[in-house]
Design goal:
about 0% strand; 4 helices; mainly alpha; about 85% helix
């Protein structure tokens, strides 16, 4: 863009040594790279291939117009690309913040669930011990009941023998 601006200014001033400058070399490259109509490309190529810019003085207005159109197109493309890039940067930053929050929330959820898993594991162990203790107590109670039935039967028989 800067080379094109220099080229337009030099041609408008009628600079005689323009074709030997680096701006002219960049302009030659742009005529190849840019999307131009064949007529515009031919006019620019003819201008850039001549040894002196004074030969094409009558068409220099047309050449300046083509160059200004190229400059406007390039500036418009640059503005669109810059806006697109800024939007992409903004979207990336927003996504990055959202993902960081999501990672933090998931980390907290993992910690919470791990803690809960530990508590539930302890409760399961305690309940298994309670079941074991209750089973032993039940066996003792059944043994006591059997002994009680036996003792009651013995006492009943003794009572009957006495009466």
């Amino acid at each position: 863009i800067a080379a094109l601006e220099k080229a337009i200014a030099a041609i408008e001033k009628g600079a005689t040594g323009f074709l030997q400058t680096t701006a002219a070399a960049k302009l030659r490259q742009l005529t190849v790279d840019m999307d131009l109509g064949s007529a515009d490309r031919d006019i620019l190529s003819a201008f850039l291939s001549t040894g002196s810019s004074n030969r094409y003085a009558p068409q220099s207005g047309q050449i300046v117009g083509i160059l200004k159109q190229m400059l406007e197109t390039m500036e418009k493309d640059l503005a669109e690309l810059t806006a697109t890039e800024q939007e992409a940067i903004s979207n990336f930053e927003a996504l990055s913040v959202a993902k960081t929050k999501e990672i933090d929330a998931n980390g907290a959820a993992i910690e919470s669930k791990t803690e809960r898993l530990g508590k539930v594991g302890l409760e399961i162990v305690a309940l298994k011990e309670d079941v074991d203790d209750t089973s032993k107590s039940m066996a003792d109670d059944k043994k006591f009941l059997a002994d009680l039935d036996k003792n009651c039967a013995t006492k009943k028989q003794e009572w009957e023998e006495r009466s």
